[in-house]
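Practice problem: predict the structure.
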Amino acid sequence: MKKEANNAINCSTQTWPIRVYYEDTDHGGVVYYANYLKFMERARSEFLRTAGLELDQIEQDYGVMFAVRQANVSYHAPARFNEKLLIHSSLVDMRGARIAFKQQIYRDDDHTLLTEGDIHLACINRDGNVSRIPANIINTLHDYLTNNEESAS
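Answer:
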C-alpha cells in the first residue's frame, strides 16, 4: 500500500451481494463480460455510501466526481443467470487525485473466485480536468477505514 504524508490508509474490505438477472447474461445464460464492471461499480458506490459519501453530494458540495482511469480485470470462471454473487471491495490507495480499489467477485454458494479487478479512479472537476481529492473526502474515508479496522479487531 502506498502512502503519502497524512494520507496513509488502512485497508478495509466491504462485501456487497448481487443477484445475476437475465438482463446481465448473454444468450447462453452466462454473465456478459462487461457486466462484471457494472457490478464492481455498484459495489464501489456502496462502499463510498457506507463510508458516508454520496457521489451526487460530492459533486454538489465540491464540484468533483470520480471517473475510472484504469481497469485491469481478470476473468477466472463464469457467473450464470440467477446466481448470487459477493463483491469484495477494498480501498487500497488514496493520494493526490487518485483512489485505487481491489475488487473480487465470488459465487456465493461455493466461494469460487470468478473475477478480480484493480480499478483506479481519477478525481476530476466538472470541466473534466484532474483535481486533487478534497481534504474532507480524504478525512471521511480515513475515519471510515480506521473505525472499520478497530471494529474488526
